[in-house]
Amino acid sequence: MIDxxxxxxxxxxxxxxxxxxxxxxxxxFNVKVYESRPDMRKSSISAGRSINLALSHRGIQxxxxxxxxxEILENAIKMExxxxxxxxxxxxxxxxxxxPGEFINSISRRTLNVILMDAIEKxxxxxxxxxxxxxxxNSQSGIAVLENELKQSEEFTFDLLIGTDGAASACRQYxxxxxxxxxxxxxxxxxxxxxxxxxxxxxxxxxxLLEKNALHIWPRGHFMMIxxxxxxxxxxxxxxxxxxxxESFEVLKNEDQLVTFFNTHFKDAISLIPxxxxxFFQNPTGxxxxxxxxxxxxxxxxxxxxxxxxxIIPFYGQGMNCGFEDVFIFDQxxxxxxxxxxxxxxxxxxxxxxxxxxxxLAEDNFIEMRDKVADPVFQRKRKLEMQLEKxxxxxxxxxxxxxxxxxxxxxxxxxxxxKQDELLMNICASEKSEWTESELKEIYNKLVNLSL
Length: 452
Ligand SMILES: Cc1cc2nc3c(=O)[nH]c(=O)nc-3n(C[C@H](O)[C@H](O)[C@H](O)COP(=O)(O)OP(=O)(O)OC[C@H]3O[C@@H](n4cnc5c(N)ncnc54)[C@H](O)[C@@H]3O)c2cc1C
Known about the structure:
Radius of gyration: 23 Å
Number of helices: 15
Bound molecules: flavin-adenine dinucleotide
Structural class: alpha/beta
Number of domains: 3
CATH topology of the largest domain: FAD/NAD(P)-binding domain
Largest sheet: 7 strands, mixed
Number of strands: 19
C-alpha cells in the first residue's frame, strides 16, 4: 500500500493540474495547488491561449473518472467532421467517423477550468493558492520557493511536488539544472509558424454564421485557418501562418495588405470577421513548439505532467487530451504500485513513448490539415476509409484510433495507423473512387493482415 499521508503539492492549476488535484482529493490525499495567475472565476483574465479546445474520448475518459464528463459535455458543442472551405467558398464535409457517438467536442478552456476548480474547492476550500508562482526547487532538501503577487518569496517543504505548470514549466527548469545527475534529455523545436485568434460573431437572432457542428478548415497549402464553434454562437477562428516568406506575418504590415490577403485566400470568411484588422494587429501572436524530455521524475520527489512534460503542437487536438490521459494513467498506477518511487518511475516510462508518438502525429497532421485535406488522393482515401468503417465497424482509421480509442495507446495507434495510411494512399493513387462490397472486403483483408 502506498503512503496515504504524503502531502502532494501541485504547481499549476491549468487543465491538467486541476484534474490531477481533483482526482487526488477524491482519493483522500492531502493536496495543495499553487497557481501563478489570479483566480479566473473572480477576474476577467483570459484563460490562456486558445479560447476553445477539441475534447475527445481520451480526455472524456479521464473526466469520467472524476465524475465530471456529463457536466462538461453539456457545455460543449459536438463537431462531427471537418468542413473544408476551398478558395471559391465551396464546402466539402469529411466526417470523423461512420460510427455513432464518434465526434469531437468544442469546449471553452475557461468553462472547463472553472468546472474543475469548483469541483476541487467543493472538496477542499482554498486548496488552490492563486497569484503564487513556483520559482525554484531544491529536491535534496525538499524545499521549493514561491513568489506571491507582491514579489515576496516564501519557502515550503514538499513530500512530492508535481509540475503541471505548462509548456514553459519552471518545474522542468529544475530537471535542466539537475541534468547530469538525472541524465535528463531535452529538446524544444519551434515551428516556423505563429497563430492569431480572430472572432466570428453570431448573426441576426444569435444564429451561427457557419455550420455549427463542424470544425471548419480553410486549407491553403503552407498556411491555413480553422474555426471552432462556441455556445454563444460565435466561432473562434485561428489563422496559422509562417513568420517569414511571401505569405507570412512579416509581409502583413498594414490594413490594406491584410484585407488583400484575406480577400485572396479567405474570400468567404472575411465578411464574417468584422474586427479583423483590430484583432489581427492587437491580439498576440502565439508560437508553436514541441517539447520532448525525459525522465519526468526525480525519484519520488518531483514529477512532470501535462504540457510541462510534453508540449505538442495543436494539430491533432490532443495536447489537453493527452494531459488528461496522463492523470487517468497516474490514477491507475496509484492502485498498481507499492510505493511512490515505482509510481513515478512507471508513469514516466509508460507515458513517454506515447507522448512522443502524439507529438510526431501532430506534426504529420499539420501537413494533412493545411495541405492534404484539399488533395484529391487524400479525399478519395478519406472516402474509402468511411466506407470501410461503415462496412467493417471494427476497422479504425489512424485518426479514429487516436481520437476515439483510449484503449489503444498513442504509440500503437501511430504504428498501425501509418501502415494503414500507406496501403490506402497507394490504393487511392488511381482515379478510382467507388468500391464494390467485394473490393472493400479485399482491402479490409489486406488491412487486417498488415504486419505490425
Ligand atoms: C492554439 C492551441 C490550440 C489547442 N487546441 C487543443 C485542442 O483542440 N485539444 C487539445 O486537447 N489540446 C489543445 N491544445 C493544447 C492544450 O492547450 C494544452 O495541452 C493544455 O492546455 C495543457 O494543459 P496543462 O495544464 O498541462 O498546461 P496549461 O494549460 O498551460 O496550464 C499551466 C498552468 O500553470 C500555471 N503556471 C505556469 N507557470 C507556473 C509557475 N511557475 N507556478 C505556478 N503556476 C504556474 C499557468 O498559469 C497555468 O494555469 C491547444 C494548444 C494551443 C496552443
